[in-house]
Design brief:
The protein is an alpha/beta fold. It folds into 2 domains: 2-215 and 394-414, Rossmann fold (3-Layer(aba) Sandwich), CATH 3.40.50; 233-387, Rossmann fold, CATH 3.40.50. The chain contains 13 helices and 18 strands. It has an 8-stranded mixed sheet, with helices on both faces. β3 and β4 form a beta hairpin.
Length: 418
Amino acid sequence: MRILVFAHNHPDLHPGGTETVALDLARAYRKAGHQSLFVGATNHLHREPHPGTSFQAISDSGDELLMWAGHFDRFNMSQIDLQAFVPDMRTLLESFRPDVVHIHHLLLFGVELPVLIRRVLPDVRIVMTLHDYYAICANDGVLMKSPDEACAALGSGGLCKCLPEAKPNDMRLRERFIKTHLEAVDEFVSPSAFLRDVYVRWGLAPEKIRIIRNGRPDAAPAKSRSADDTPKTVFGYFGNLTPWKGVEVLLQAAKLLVEKDMEFELRVHGGAPFQNQEFVKRIEKLFEETAPRVQRLGAYKPDDVAGLMEPVDWVVVPSLWWENAPLVIAEAQQHGRPVITSGVGGMAEAVRDGVDGLHVRKNDPVGLAIAMATAAGDAAQYRKLAANIRKPPSVSAVAEQYLRLFADRQTAAREPAA
């Protein structure tokens, strides 16, 4: 098969979970003997446009490209500059002529992409993996008014409390605009049952959404320390430092533990790109107040994870929103580390409370501090949870699931109607 893979960035430019999963799968398709081309969208935050073409190289590899798509309406998820975008995308589709198009995100490309693909290649199979809630939520897909208030307008086309300038009609038109374009997609995939259920509530047909879990590339597990002879427990945070990822709550919990003079270490891995300056100032103050027990270690690359995981006993994922299938949880489980996580969304689905990790209330620094203190003082619990960890599937195994899906649908498309 010839498989064209779209994502809203490239891990070399923005090491997010969706981009990483998309590129891993594109490479797995090639290893399985298929032709795959990965195309990541980019804009002026990472690249400037090149005169005469939307496409740029990302490496010496001929099977990974960037497409500059800097004119984008975020509210409607719409590609503004269709006059430039359409001819270049048509050229790409007609040149590569894929059997299957696997879309991982429509940011920057625009929700018009599936319809354009269908018009250029009427018989191509279009599969879209749903990684988050951007299609539903105009407020960066978080589906939250506040950490304690979920979106009240889910599926109703009602007033958006987060964007007061958006009138009810704006929201209804946005919903209809996006749903109409998504009708060109043959089948959707969700990495979690929770996210699938949210999209069904929004109005996607349940029979069109299949669940396929995300996988991880094969890697030797990071060496674990003995919980019996460890002088202090080491917690690890991995990911961008953003308000919705809950890093502020984690630092507040760490401050409480410092004030109690508890022996522990918290290693925080990740940068804070494009964040509100007030938020940045707040977390910088918390880092100062919790040093040296809390170490801010900065951004990292996916290849660094195994080494960074080695000194860590527990991984903490304190997100405030309904995460779908956080990459960091899969990475922790791949390396045999129990996870302390907010018991909501796909996080509660990925980590079994009291079995292979611990759930805490979201946005609760006191509750998180108690959980961390309890975890640090119970070596027997650590051994039990670590022994029960389910390893995530390999990327190659997940790619095989997708390839069977692609092949099944191609066969169904070729069979004459009864």
